[in-house]
Amino acid sequence: xxxLAYGVHEVTTDEEGxxxxxxxxxxxxxxxxxxxxxxVNFRVRTTSPIVSICPGDSATMTVQCDTDYVYQWYDEDxxxxxxxxxxxxxxxxxxxxAYYVVVTDLVTGCTTTERxxxxxxxxxxxxxxxxFAPNPANSELNIYYPDLRGVSKLTFELQSMNGxxxxxxxxxxxxxxxxxxxxxxxxxVYAGTLIADGVPVVTQKVILNGGN
Length: 212
Prior knowledge:
Blueprint: E1 17-24, E2 30-37, E3 50-53, E4 59-62, E5 69-75, E6 88-91, E7 97-105, E8 111-120, E9 131-133, E10 140-144, E11 154-160, E12 166-171, E13 177-181, E14 188-196, E15 199-208
Parallel strand pairs: 3-8
Antiparallel strand pairs: 1-2, 4-6, 5-7, 7-8, 9-10, 10-13, 11-12, 11-14, 14-15
């Protein structure tokens, strides 16, 4: 017999697999259609998610540029930044803050969100060499600060990029390098900030693979 389409029937699933749909008419005839659902892991490349600048400077955040992608940027309060639909965003903020971009693949319809944090270092705003290694780190993180001299108190702070856990460590201000035990810190992506006499001097992304 004939199959008459009186409408469109949708089936929604969030699991991968092969699905078969069977239709039947009043005469008892059946027809089947099979489709495969595959999860697409859609991610885009980005520059560093942490941008550290001096007061009055501009910060640029960039994700992978592709003609098949559509971009929309937002601030940390989820306010849409109208007109900011490119693969990069440049801001000159007066205070530290967070931004994120929603990227949509026009071919697959998939979306992904990439987050950034802009940190303004207060005056005095030093331009110094600082290195955190190894990065990613497992149990120990070495911190090198050979250009930082004449400081009486030096601390290192790890703040989760999710805005959660914060870890603080004291360093020897005269040693020009130090080592901190990060074995008890939760694994994840952090903003690592070196603080001299209460003033943040540099912030870099730190990845911890150890911990819980």
